[in-house]
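Checklist before submission:
- one chain only
- standard amino acids only
- sequence pasted in full

Submission:
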Amino acid sequence: MRKGLLGSITALLGGAGLTFAQAPAPPLPATPLAPAPPASAAESAHPELCVPPCAEDPGARFWVGADYLLWWTKGSPTPPLLITGPAPLPTGPIITTVPPPPDTGFVALRTITGAFTSLTPGASTGNVPSGNSIEDGVRTGGRFVVGGWLDPERTIGLEGSYFFLASRSMAFGTNSNGSPTVAIPYLNASTGQEAGYTIAQPLTTISSVFDVNSGPGVFVNLNVTTSTDASSGKAVVISTSRLQGSEANGVWSPDVLGKHLQLLAGFRYAQLDEGLGIASSVSHFHSDTTLIQPAFGLDNNLIDNHSTSLTTRWDQFDTHNNFYGAQVGARGEYTWGRLSVLAGAKVALGTMNESVDIRGLSSFSTTTTVTPTDGILIAGIPLTIPTGAPAVTTTTSGHSVGGLFAQPTNIGHYSRNVFAVVPEGNLKVGYQISERLRATVGYSFFYMSDVARPGEQIDRAINPGLLATPPLNGPPARPLFHIKSTDYWAQGVDFGLEFRF
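Returned file contents:
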């Protein structure tokens, strides 16, 4: 019994010894620690100066942007194009005796004329320019930008952009049946005096009484001639404008100031095309009636001559300005969390090609009715009387080169190259909508130092003979052409989106 118990204990201890004599089990593999969660936006926000895409965003190598432009531009200067006034006012009678009668018996002619003014200059009428400039008002447009870094360090990159203002066409004009009086003012090159090309005026009358001075202070009436004129018509002024430009730049982010600044260098192109058209249509009625005194015993004692004409004129002044130049600039950005302020400035130096095209046409149609007449002498005084034959009606029409301010003396194509400076600046405020998308709103200013504008190419001095139908050629050779330059600016508000990827 005791031998059996001792055997059992000995066997148990032996098994335990074998167990302790075995090699220890290999340790379990260590579990790696989970990465620390990223700091919150509030923890990582700190003021810094950079230009997106920033270097700390390793996934952004390219950027694109689009802006909606709401801009104003410098008005287009013009001379006075339409003026108006009240109805003509009587100024007579005016008494003229040719030759002056002596105190004693003499035979002469006397004319008593009731005259009227044909035009009283006044302010612009209806929907017409003020005479100083045509204002564009607010214009809309767009700007598009695309760029990218060429190296992983984001030191060297390329960027291109294009902007435009939508083409604008504005029309001004007036239509008058005779009241108010309307005219296009110009300078009479023959006299140097202000004059007006009549578009519309009420009926005006000039009456002339022809008498014989049969003795000192004694006059016997021969006839009365009455001349009447009336015009009605319309005039339209059309102004057009288009602005656009593009640029291509190399971008360098130097390793100074923590790459807080970007420098630009490249090429800029800008184009400004404008036009000014002046069109008019005038219907003019004129009559001359002479009533011969019945004392002469004529069967037909009325001479009636009258005409109706329709004249249309068209002037077109177009200017084209194309700038080509080298450009340098800089830009930077300051951020506060999701908010940012962006600023940039560029200036281009180069050549502005200015060209001007001037065209003009006129057409006319006139119907005239004339009473056949004959000349006789009564007491040595010449007198024109009707023959009694039927009135003769004729119609003439034609076309000619030249309108009003555009005449053969200045019509043509003209061009020249001048040195010009084109700077641009902008300031924006941005808000980071997401990691790669940002919205911006800001202000931009664009300037061109030398451009040709259509209204300034008009020479107001006109040879009045060129306004006859058909035109009468002869001196002085006016209007003339001499290209004139001025500056131009556009500025306004931008609303944009930028995306980096």
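Reviewer check: The first strand starts at residue 48 and ends at 49.
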